[in-house]
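Fill in residues.
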């Protein structure tokens, strides 16, 4: 059993701390947000993450997991301290490191023994060296420490499973022994281990996120071509993905990537590249394609509503940036809703868990109790987040209750042919070829089809 302090109890800190406690370690989670700590101590989860509540409860009961606002308490016996604070987008896309700086300074001031400081937040290449300097300067008297970069690869919505079954764990440090010691915390997870230098570890994180974002923009670009040329991007992705060198994952065309990570991390990497005199042309294209993908949904709505969005009743299913989370940071769904509100539409929405956050962010949005209420009397319905429960809807009932049968499926959740049979004017993403050997009229009127 090792003694671990985790700074920050958001998606990464709370899951990591709870995961380490579940592996048998003694963990204290520290956060500067007193409400969050108070909630956690009452067993209330500040975030929605499948499987987390039960794991937190179990480990708090066993006495291996505690939460506090006090760094002194968190650092008291700790051998390892994980920095898991936010690194949001700053000016011009640069990562804002103010929370990392504050955490590093406080750790330096209050550490009482030898400590391994592990950076789990996603930070620009070179930040580990910078954190070492901060700690050295802020220590009232010199105490031994090492800094290790251990980037996190978990996804929201499956964070607990991802923590327990990582594809790999990466550790970077100038102090190889310290990196080795941190890697031993992950031993029981049986994941491939990469031990490297600190800058390489930091770059592995950005390169991984940027690569995944690139795959999404790639398939989104192909999806636009499919619409124009009468092909089906779902089948294209399947056909491509069966090649083992390509693989099936992250080839789902849709409304573009969102969330608290891809948008900011691609921007931050492009910023780093530009400030180091290189030309991140591919990353710039990835971002441009992603921006266009949201506009593309609006163009589809414009098209099905004959160019008139003002005063139309438009329903949106899903508000979170992806399924199985309540996170609305950089949510494409919310961005589409906002643009519709700005164009004078009456917009209503339903999301299984993200409505509370969304109502604060966009008060003009009328929230409904379920998906059927959203559809009632609507002129168009947009599928913006692919929650599983939307797959189970009685679509005949949905169709019957709408004023106009326009269905813009931003996540390709439904079978086009079935939707046409039900009487919907169905528009998926990249689905130029829509079944039964018939090419439907492509959007913007230049198709070769019969409908
Ligand atoms: P978050 O916003 O959910 O949580 C950050 C927490 O840190 C908040 O509770 C905040 O109150 C706390 N905090 C801020 N400053 C603090 C300080 N000085 N001392 C103590 N607590 C402090 O953020 P997150 O989504 O968990 O992301 C954290 C980092 O991990 C980011 O760098 C992010 O890019 C990276 N990351 C996130 C994910 C993800 O899925 N969310 C996955 C991998 C990596
Ligand atoms: C992503 C990465 O997948 C994690 O490995 C990483 O740790 C994390 O960012 C991070 O650094 O924070 P996350 O943002 O939680 O995780 O969710 P993803 O499942 O990657 O989805 C990101 C966005 O891309 C979502 O908006 C999702 O809907 C979209 N997406 C994903 C697509 O449009 N198509 C796809 O094929 C896959």
């Amino acid at each position: 059993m090792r003694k671990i302090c985790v700074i920050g109890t958001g998606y990464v800190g709370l899951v990591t701390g709870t995961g380490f406690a579940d592996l048998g370690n003694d963990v204290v989670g520290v956060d500067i947000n007193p409400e969050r700590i108070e909630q956690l101590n009452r067993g209330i989860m500040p975030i929605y993450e499948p499987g987390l509540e039960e794991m937190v409860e179990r480990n708090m009961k066993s006495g291996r997991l505690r939460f506090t606002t006090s760094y002194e308490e968190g650092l008291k016996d700790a051998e390892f301290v994980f920095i898991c604070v936010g690194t949001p987008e700053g000016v011009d896309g640069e990562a804002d490191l103010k929370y990392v700086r504050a955490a590093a300074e406080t750790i330096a001031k209050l550490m009482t023994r030898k400590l391994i400081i592990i950076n789990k937040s996603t930070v620009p290449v070179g930040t580990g060296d910078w954190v070492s300097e901060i700690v050295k300067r802020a220590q009232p008297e010199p105490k031994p420490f090492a800094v290790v970069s251990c980037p996190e690869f978990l996804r929201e919505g499956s964070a607990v499973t991802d923590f327990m079954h990582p594809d790999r764990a990466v550790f970077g440090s100038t102090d190889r022994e310290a990196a080795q010691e941190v890697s031993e915390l992950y031993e029981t997870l049986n994941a491939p281990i990469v031990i490297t230098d600190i800058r390489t570890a930091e770059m592995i994180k950005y390169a991984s996120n940027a690569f995944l974002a690139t795959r999404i923009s790639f398939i989104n670009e192909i999806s636009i071509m499919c619409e124009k040329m009468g092909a089906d991007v779902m089948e294209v992705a399947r056909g491509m993905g069966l090649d083992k060198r390509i693989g099936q994952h992250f080839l789902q065309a849709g409304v573009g990537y969102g969330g608290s990570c891809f948008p900011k991390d691609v921007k931050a990497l492009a910023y780093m590249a530009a400030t180091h005199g290189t030309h991140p042309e591919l990353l710039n294209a990835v971002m441009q394609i992603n921006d266009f993908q949201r506009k593309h949904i609006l163009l589809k709505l414009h098209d099905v509503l004959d160019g008139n969005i003002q005063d139309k009743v438009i329903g949106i299913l899903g508000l979170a940036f992806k399924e199985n989370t309540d996170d609305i940071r950089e949510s494409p769904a919310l961005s589409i809703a906002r643009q519709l509100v700005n164009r004078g539409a009456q917009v209503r929405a339903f999301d299984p868990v993200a409505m509370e956050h969304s109502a604060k962010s966009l008060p003009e949005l009328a929230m409904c109790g379920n998906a059927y209420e959203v559809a009632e009397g609507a002129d168009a319905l947009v599928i913006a987040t692919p929650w599983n429960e939307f797959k189970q809807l009685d679509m005949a009932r949905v169709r019957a209750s709408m004023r106009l049968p326009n269905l813009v499926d931003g996540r390709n959740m439904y079978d086009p042919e079935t939707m046409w049979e039900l009487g919907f004017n169905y528009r998926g993403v990249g689905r130029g070829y829509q079944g039964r050997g018939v090419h439907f009229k492509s959007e913007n009127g230049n198709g070769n089809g019969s409908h």
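The chain has a mean pLDDT of 94.
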